[in-house]
Specification:
Length: 259
Amino acid sequence: MDPVGLPDTVSRELPPQDTGRIFLIDKPAGPTSFAMVRGLRRVLGLKKVGHAGTLDPFASGLLILCAGRSATRLIPRFMDGDKEYLATLCLGVETTTLDPEGSVTNRCEVGRRDAAEIERVLARFRGGMLQTPPAFSALKHMGKPLYHYARRGITIVKEPREVKISVLERTDGDQDIVGDECLLRLRVVCSKGTYIRSLAADIGSSLGCGAYLKELRRTRSGCFSLDGSLSGDVLRSGNDCQQVLNAAMSIEEACNLLQ
């Protein structure tokens, strides 16, 4: 049995005349992005499958998968463009990884945070800014991701990078927040390379109570969105190859969207 729960069977390949296909997958929270890649490999019977930007296991939403050599060559182009997310911050709690996968390092009483105060804090993060990549990230250092070192207690500090937050707005109304471990729900549109976990932690710090990123859903990446996407559960079951093939986007269709 494959780690994603697929039976040990091989489904049909893409037709020989098809040199590549792009799949817009709605990844559920839980499995890794690479589990989705393995699932598509199994369903299609192809080895050449790659992704255009991963999502953490706890995150859900748009995952662009490319099947076939001519499609994987386009991955750098597919990764360009702004990203859009729906983010849920848990105020009053901080974790080692800045998300729910880490251990709690601090708890703080939130008290009352009025809507005007929250808006003033959010306004500070709109526009261009320098952001330091988090210790638990896939960014490479000497050929290995930073989380490889962080899990061993070694902290590698990378130089801050310029990112841009073009939209940062509440989706839970403009009411005050009262109580402990309150949730703050946001819509974020940002440049590629922006770490929403770091943004969540920085917002919590500016509010004076700390925060971690409890939930994250990617709704758009560049010109691609969740519209017409295929549920990642289909890849996990691996029972309907035709449904997967019907969801494929041709290279020509994808390139037309890029224009």
